[in-house]
Fold these 2 entries.
Entry 1:
Amino acid sequence: MRKRIAILGSTGSIGTQTLEVIAQNPEHFEVEVLTANNNIGLLIEQAKLFQPNVVVITNSCHYDQLKDALKDDPIKVYGGREAIQQVVQMDTIDLVVTAMVGYSGLIPTCNAIKAGKHIALANKETMVVAGEIINQLALEHKVNIYPVDSEHSAIFQCLVGEFNNEVEKIYLTASGGPFRGFSMEQLANVTKADALKHPNWDMGAKITIDSASLMNKGFEVIEAKWLFGLKPEQIDVIVHPQSIVHSIVQFRDGSMKAQMGLPDMKLPIQYALNFPERLPSSFKRFSFLDYPKLTFEQPNTKNFRNLALAFEALNQGGNMPCILNAANEVVVQAFLNDKISFLQMPEIIEQTMGKATYIKKPALEDYIQSDKEVRILTAAMVKNLAKQKI
Ligand code: NDP
Ligand code: MG
């Protein structure tokens, strides 16, 4: 039986690479659902090629065009945000790949879990915002969550076969991004174009900015807490500019296991799709001759304040990671729109964390309200700063 896959965000970096993995393994996987937000051209192309049962375009403006383009194909076409929330529950889906960006992934992921669908989780923001609720739902509905994020896939791979062996700590590796080693003076002048040039990974715009600001690593710390049931003090971040060691687990006897390989997201995607069996692949192999040195250094949390803010949010718990995420989504968008500078991003996030309503034990509805409140609060701060700039 082929595994029937729904890809939420099929036109993005993770979505397209998931389709590459599926195309290379047609005897194992088939595409059941594809969704996109705006990129109608690519969605049509993917639908024609993979012939899913259903496609969804979130931005309803494009619905008529999509419907018309697929009128001769046996494919159901839906539009709007609610459509994604419904199609993830279809009986014919075995696994949902959550490759949408940001908070938009939260409700579809909750619905998919409630319908008993296993999840290949790329959309880390869902775990950042509501990890506790996602875990509870997964437990209740007997759903497995397979990490796609390369660091978490690495930890997951290191844990296979360790059964109840206690983890002492984990080291999440970070490339350090394009601004590794930069002084505050240098960071004050970096541009959007500089931030969008990641040294090792080719990803969507939002996560590329998060990687440059180290917020991505902060999110991954929170994601790791929920995926692996760790305390904040058991999670460490180490900068490894070559991105070959994808992360490390240290067990209670002091032994450390690492997972390594060239940086290629297709590997963790394929592992998540077909766990526990490893499929053959033609991905480029690592050569020690190309990497005479693998280096490791401490992250600079003074200059890259976001990482410290993420640890703070994690330690405070409650809805603080949700506040962190919503503030970050607003400032990243403002930075991409040239409204604020690189260093103003952590500044505004920190202020928001101080101002937004803190809830110690939030329910799903509280997260939804909190996300709304923070977006308004942060947008107002961005507006004020932008005014001062003029
Ligand atoms: P991209 O920006 O490349 O793709 C995002 C996808 O989601 C696109 O298909 C986009 O559609 C769709 N989308 C965007 N906004 C919405 C919305 N509001 N509602 C519905 N769909 C939406 O992102 P990435 O693939 O880089 O990242 C996806 C997720 O995976 C993120 O959470 C990221 O943190 C995580 N991740 C990514 C990695 C990577 O290597 N790229 C590595 C590890 C994790 P459209 O194209 O139409 O705009
Ligand atoms: Mg990662």
Entry 2:
Amino acid sequence: MRIEQALAKATELPSESARADVEYLLCEVLGKDRTYLRTWPDRELSPDQQSHFLELFNQRLQGRPIAHITGSRGFWNFDLEVNPSTLIPRSDTEVLVETALELVDSLDARVVDLGTGTGAIALALALEHPNWRVEACDRILEAVLLARKNAVRLGAANMTVFEGSWFDPLSGRYQLIVSNPPYIDPVDPHLNQGDLVYEPSSALVADERGLADLHYIIDNAPNYLAEGGWLLMEHGYDQAETVAKRLAERGFSNLVMREDFGGNPRVSGGCWRSKC
Ligand code: GLN
């Protein structure tokens, strides 16, 4: 089998990202980047490479997410190790990182990421600001271990990961609290589609039509925010209004809302009390 024949198998995949999926798998098998695939379409795969490729291809054909097959996913400007214990990082979550970097200009902020999963958000902030003290927590032990592993591998010496639910492991006050909590309605039909089938409901689903954890975070964040500190959360495309209302009722000011790369309301937050 030649590289171009392997790439042509994309037509057999029902995935929306079939071509990119097959490229990822081939890069993984060959240990090369995408430029190599375009430069050497005639190159033959060795028998081992071919059987390895077909094995991975069949896993994808059965629906397994690419990030679980390769064990990694790109986020911000680095690669994260990923496993089935937590959410596969989405590029839309980079909007949360961008917004945080824009709103908090302090050089030595204390920051926390609630429900960190792979550690994606916390790591992006920790690596952008080596002088920030970045904490992260998750109630799932496997996620804590994964986030710690990612932090060590990426050299984020200014990041600490705790095991515990939301605010439980925290003490003191922060200039920035960020979170991408579960926010999908338990009856949302998307849960039965695509990669979501393979991700744990602990990372995806929340009661009260997906709002329970967002509300819990908004209600409790003021106990952990410094004056002028920011709370920023990712949420569902149809939850921005409800989230803004709750933020205002709880006493947040300077409310912000940002859209994701698909133009959907995706990130909201506010400043605690004064001088933002
Ligand atoms: N954005 C994800 C999705 O809709 C959900 C992430 C989450 O629940 N935090 O697939």
